[in-house]
Write a structure and sequence with these properties.
By secondary structure, the chain is an alpha/beta fold. It folds into 2 domains: about 260 residues, Rossmann fold (3-Layer(aba) Sandwich); about 200 residues, Class I glutamine amidotransferase (GATase) domain (Rossmann fold). About 30% of the residues lie in helices and about 25% in strands. It contains 15 helices and 27 strands. The strands form 7 sheets. Strands 1, 2, 9, 10, 11, 12 and 27 form a 7-stranded mixed β-sheet that branches. Strands 15-13-16-18-26-25 form a 6-stranded mixed β-sheet. Strand 6 and strand 7 form a beta hairpin. The longest helix is centred in the C-terminal third of the chain and has 19 residues.
Length: about 500
C-alpha cells in the first residue's frame, strides 16, 4: 500500500493546492511514484481526462507536478456551483445531478464507498499519495459526516500537515484556534504546522513560533516565503481577479458571476509585455486590445448579467474595432439565440449577442472529450491562425449550429464572422505556443509595437519550470526530514 500524507488548511486559499503540488514534485524528484488526491473539490475550473471524465483542475495541476497523467480517481467528487445554494454534483467524472447544499450535506456520506474505491485504484501503482483537504477542518457546522478533511484522514490513517496563511494576518490564532476546535483524536493526527506566504525576516517570527509549539504541542515544519509563481490556483479565491495593471498588449477577460475554466488565458500571463485583466463592469474595460468571453456554468444567467450591467453593449461596440473571442459558454453567447427546452439552466430562450451566425440549444447530456487537430481556415484579423495545431478538450451542455451553410461552418473547431469575432468550444486552444504567439503578434502589429523575440515558450515547458521552482523553495524552507518521518502506510478502515 502507498504511504500517505495530508495537507489541510486553517481556511480556504491558505496554500494547500500549491503545497500538495510542491510535495508531489519533491517526491517525484526523489524517485518515488507519487500522486495527488482530493476526495471532494468545489470548483468551476474543470478538466476532461483521456477517458472523457471530468475532474477538478487543481488535481490536474498537481498530477503535472508529479509527472503523471491526470486520472479521475484523483478527484472522485467534484461540485460545480450553479447558484448560491446549489451545485452540479459530479461523481467519478460523470454528472450525478444538481443538488441543493442542504440535500448534498445529507447525501454525501453515501459517497464514501466511491472515495475509498478511487483511493484504492490510485494506490495500485503509487508509492506516495499526497492528499489535499478543503476549507478548514475546524468548521464545526460541517464536521459531522466529514469526507474531505479529518474524516478523510481517518479513512486512510493519514498524518496531517496544517497550513496557515500569515499574509492575511492572525496566523498564530488560525493555527492554535484550529487545533483547539479539533477532537483529541483529530489533533493527534496533526504532525506538523506550516506558516505560509511569509514576507520578511524569519527571525522576527521565532518568539511566536516557540509559543505556538508550546501551546499547540505540535512542531512547526516550516515557514514558507511568499512565492511569485504562475500556476493554477483555487478558482474561487484567485489573486488573478484583482490584477488591474495594463501592459503594452492588454487583454480583457469578462468575469461574469459563474465564470469557469478561465485557465484558458493563463498562457498569456507568462509574456511580460502582456496583461490579462478580469473585468466586471463596462467602465473597467477601458481600451483593451482584445476581449475574451470565457466559459460559464450558467451561460444564460451570465449573458443576462452582461446585458443588465452594460458590458454586452460595450463589447458589441468594441467588436467593430478589436478582436472578441468566446470560448465554450462565451462562444454560445456570441450567437443569435440560446434555447433551453429542458431547463438545463434557466429554461426558455434568450437572444444572444448576435455577433456570430449561430444558434445554441442547451441539452441535458454533457459533452466531455479531448480534442486535437489543426485550426480550420479562417478569415479576418486572425487569419494567420489557420492550420496551426492545438490540443485541448470540450466540456459543455449544448449543441451549436450555423444558421446558414458556410464553407467553414460551426462544425469546424473555430468559427468567425470573417472580421473580428471568433468562437470555439475548445478549452486549451491557446496553450499551444504557436497559437498564443500568433494572437499576440497580430495585436502587436496592429499597434505597431515590437514584442521581444523568444518570449513565447511552450506553455507546458514553462509550467515545468514553475513546478521545479516551487519544489526548490519548499526544500529550502520545509523540514523534509520531518515530513518523510510522518509518512505512514495507508490503512482503509
Amino acid at each position: 500500500m502507498a504511504k500517505v500524507i495530508m495537507v489541510q488548511g486553517t481556511m480556504s486559499n491558505s496554500g494547500k493546492s500549491f503545497l500538495v503540488a510542491g510535495l508531489c514534485r519533491i517526491f517525484k524528484q526523489d524517485g518515488y511514484r507519487v500522486a495527488p488526491f482530493k476526495s471532494q473539490n468545489m470548483a468551476l475550473n474543470s478538466y476532461i481526462t483521456e477517458e472523457g471524465l471530468e475532474m477538478g483542475r487543481a488535481q490536474v495541476m498537481q498530477a503535472e507536478a508529479a509527472g503523471i497523467r491526470p486520472k479521475v480517481c484523483m478527484n472522485p467528487i467534484l461540485l460545480k456551483p450553479t447558484n448560491h445554494v446549489g451545485s452540479q454534483v459530479i461523481v467519478n467524472g460523470r454528472v450525478l445531478g444538481n443538488m441543493a447544499a442542504k440535500d448534498y450535506f445529507q447525501y454525501k456520506t453515501s459517497l464514501i464507498p466511491d472515495i475509498k474505491k478511487a483511493f484504492r485504484e490510485l494506490e495500485t501503482d503509487t508509492d506516495i499519495i499526497v492528499i489535499e483537504g478543503a476549507g478548514s477542518p475546524a468548521e464545526i457546522n460541517l464536521k459531522e459526516n466529514d469526507i474531505v478533511n479529518m474524516g478523510m484522514a481517518a479513512m486512510v490513517n493519514a498524518p496531517v500537515l496544517l497550513v496557515g496563511d500569515i499574509d492575511r494576518g492572525g496566523v498564530f490564532a488560525q493555527l492554535l484556534g484550529t487545533l483547539m476546535l479539533l477532537t483529541e483524536e483529530e489533533k493527534n493526527r496533526v504532525k506538523g504546522l506550516i506558516i505560509n506566504k511569509f514576507r520578511g525576516d524569519k527571525s522576527i517570527l521565532d518568539p511566536g513560533i516557540t509559543m505556538l509549539e508550546e501551546r499547540g504541542q505540535v512542531p512547526v515544519a516550516g515557514v514558507i516565503p511568499y512565492m511569485d509563481l504562475s500556476l493554477e490556483d483555487e478558482d474561487s479565491l484567485t489573486d488573478r481577479f484583482t490584477k488591474k495593471s495594463e501592459g503594452l498588449i492588454d487583454l480583457a477577460v469578462i468575469r461574469y458571476p459563474r465564470i469557469s475554466n478561465f485557465t484558458d488565458f493563463n498562457v498569456f500571463e507568462q509574456i511580460s509585455e502582456v496583461s490579462v485583466r478580469y473585468v466586471t463592469s463596462a467602465a473597467e474595460l477601458h481600451h483593451p486590445d482584445m476581449i475574451f468571453l470565457p466559459g460559464s456554468k450558467n451561460t444564460m444567467g451570465d449573458l443576462k448579467w452582461m446585458r443588465q450591467n452594460g458590458i454586452e453593449a460595450e463589447v458589441k461596440k468594441l467588436s467593430k474595432q478589436i478582436p472578441v473571442f468566446g470560448i465554450c459558454g462565451g462562444y454560445q453567447m456570441l450567437g443569435s439565440t440560446i434555447r433551453d427546452p429542458d431547463a438545463v439552466e434557466e429554461g426558455g430562450a434568450i437572444r444572444g449577442m448576435e455577433l456570430l451566425l449561430t444558434k445554441t440549444v442547451l441539452q441535458k447530456q454533457k459533452k466531455r472529450c479531448q480534442v486535437k487537430g489543426s485550426i480550420a481556415k479562417l478569415e479576418g484579423v486572425f487569419k494567420d491562425l489557420s492550420g496551426l495545431t492545438f490540443c485541448g478538450y470540450e466540456i459543455h451542455m449544448g449543441s451549436t449550429t450555423a444558421q446558414q451553410v458556410q464553407e467553414h461552418s460551426v462544425l469546424e473547431n473555430v468559427i468567425t464572422d470573417g472580421k473580428n469575432v471568433y468562437g470555439s468550444y475548445v478549452h486549451g486552444l491557446f496553450d499551444s505556443a504557436a497559437v498564443a504567439e500568433c494572437i499576440i503578434r497580430v495585436l502587436a502589429k496592429k499597434k505597431d509595437i515590437c514584442i521581444t523575440d523568444g518570449v513565447f515558450e511552450d506553455y507546458q515547458t514553462f509550467k515545468e519550470k514553475q513546478y521545479d521552482k516551487l519544489a526548490d523553495t519548499l526544500r529550502e524552507y520545509l523540514n523534509m526530514d520531518q515530513i518523510y518521518e510522518m509518512l505512514t502506510e495507508a490503512e482503509i478502515h
